[in-house]
Write a structure and sequence with these properties.
Elements: E1 5-10, H1 16-19, E2 31-36, H2 38-46, E3 52-56, E4 67-76, E5 83-87, E6 96-98, H3 104-117, E7 123-125, E8 139-144, H4 146-151, E9 157-160, H5 161-169, E10 173-180, H6 186-200, H7 203-209, H8 217-224, E11 226-228, H9 231-244
Parallel strand pairs: 1-2, 1-3, 6-7, 6-8
Antiparallel strand pairs: 3-10, 4-10, 4-11, 5-8, 5-9
Amino acid sequence: MERKVKVAAVSYLNTRPLLYGFREHPVMNLLELSVDYPAKIAQQLIEGEVDVALVPVAVIPKLKEYHIVSDFCIGAEGPVASVCLFSEVPLNEIKRIYLDYQSRTSVALLKVLVREHWKLSAELIETTGDYQDKIKGTDAGLVIGDRALEQRHVSPYIYDLAEHWMRFTSLPFVFAAWISNKPLSPEFIQQFNHANSIGIKDIPAIVAENPYSLYDLTTYYTQNISYPLTPSKRQGMQRFLSYLY
């Protein structure tokens, strides 16, 4: 019997449409699925603990070998709502920025925007645990995922990173893609891709299953997140990677 393909995904609300179709799908006979936060599964992919992962694209330069294995991603063609710089003061008054430890891509994107687009001289501070209570005065914070949707109710100034990337480059942004660290069979990829597509076509079912009072998930899944990995998104991804390389 062939070894099952080890697959890891992010446990945020934004991945629910991609994972929804896996439940009853035949591809589940071919894989083992685990979930965690982005930086953790990125490390698992780098170290070969998993074969495929929905990872922040900033991990790509760290992989000896990589293959994009799906036509779907976590992307944005405008404001993404859940990857933002939060502050009590306008951009030009920010002195320090706390960085979210959960995602390499969002931190890398923030650094590109700080340096190339906003041209700020703010001090960047790494974090390892909760830090949202430090977002006050001239101290800002990059917050991602579900916690960012919560922080939208707290901070008066919200700078959406995908929106500002679009202003800077006129290209969409890819936060995470399904990436493997080895070649996989075309049959597996075809079934995997099909499982991904099911939830994208049934957003009302996913919204109904995930009651959430802090943000309208229909808006989030249909207007903020853009799931198809289009040619323009691939172009945006290559532009972003050019800054990392």
